[in-house]
Design a protein that fits this description.
Strand content: 15-25%
CATH superfamily: Phosphoglycerate mutase-like
Low-confidence stretches: none
Number of strands: 7
Distance between the termini: 28 Å
Number of domains: 1
Strand order of the largest sheet: 3-2-4-1-6-7-5
Mean pLDDT: 94
Shape: globular
Largest sheet: 7 strands, mixed
Helix content: 25-40%
CATH topology: Rossmann fold
Structural class: alpha/beta
């Protein structure tokens, strides 16, 4: 069994002072939402054992804030800065996940960007929570998290529609429960 957790970065400023997209930072809502999703993860084990984070500032901040909110409850995962996640399409994201078989984490989290993260989550979730799949069909919102389980022994064996969506959650959905 392998568990994939796809976390989109939280809400950001419109433009970075540098003018570079990779330098955009979280805004106030983004800080709150990253902490909220991190606290949710901390209350809902199992936790990621390996985290791959895009090099973009907003993704790094999302992970750091989420980790701060969950670290009292979760063991520290191995964290890897993964520039390939920035701007990645479904094929590149799948390749990155399959390459995780080298270290073979049982529970892998990616912290990245749309549209690739949304498209990947929707493409992998062939079964599971029907309401979550319907909601995920529309969007993976900022600070949104899709947790997908695969009945495989190795990351190289995951494929489109082979995953089971266990949870789709976002700060907005947390507030509604």
């Amino acid at each position: 069994m392998r568990r994939l957790m796809l976390l989109r970065h939280a809400k950001t400023e419109t433009d970075a002072p540098s003018g570079r997209d990779e330098d955009r930072r979280l805004d106030q809502r983004g800080h709150r939402d990253a902490a909220e999703i991190g606290a949710w993860i901390g209350r809902h084990p199992p936790f990621p054992s390996h985290v791959m984070v895009s090099h973009a500032i907003r993704a790094l901040q999302t992970w750091e804030i989420a980790w701060e909110a969950m670290k009292e409850l979760a063991p520290a995962p191995e964290v890897e800065l993964t520039p390939e996640l920035y701007g990645a399409d479904v094929a590149k994201l799948l390749e990155t996940i399959r390459n995780a078989s080298v270290s073979d984490p049982k529970r892998l989290m990616l912290v990245g960007h749309n549209p690739g993260m949304h498209e990947l989550a929707f493409a992998l979730a062939g079964s599971g929570d029907p309401a979550g799949r319907d909601a995920l069909a529309d969007n993976l919102p900022t600070a949104g998290l899709a947790i997908i389980d695969f009945d495989v022994d190795d990351w190289t064996n995951i494929g489109l529609r082979r995953g089971r969506l266990e949870v789709f959650i976002s700060p907005k959905l947390i507030k509604q429960t």
